[in-house]
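Handover notes (outgoing to incoming on-call)

Open items:
1. MarR family winged helix-turn-helix transcriptional regulator: sequence verified, structure written out, both below. Nothing else pending on this one.
2. Nothing else urgent.
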Amino acid sequence: MGSLETPTEQQAHSLLLNDQLCFALYAASRAVTQRYRPLLEALGLTYPQYLVLLVLWEHGTVPIKDIGAALNLDYGTLTPLIKRLESAGLLSRERRPEDERTVLVTLTEQGRDLREQARAVPTAIGEAMGLTPSQFEQARHLLRLLTANVSAQP
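MarR family winged helix-turn-helix transcriptional regulator structure tokens:
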């Protein structure tokens, strides 16, 4: 007699590697990040540094706390990234005069100029993904939903 589980339920309980959504996410993340590497190396950046700059290019001067929130990174992970970008001359840090606990991060002229050089990166990555605009939006929507759902779990 066969199992009463549907194929989806059987897959949910499977221990086969190719049935694991987490592995598909991991493999896709590694592939995309690898594709970024040569593009970002040409700019003198790592992928996490690029993400920090994306936040600053979008919002201007930002407290470190807000950068961490935008990237889902804790202070201990973010601080070394910020320090390396500061050493490279791409941004500066300063304490907010009215609240010494808040550290503001600001792009330098060099950091602002790098934005123009980085404009080709999203296009190159989009082409490498080979998705239609509709597929791209659907994938982004599902990944954001998955992140929100998993993050909401205790």
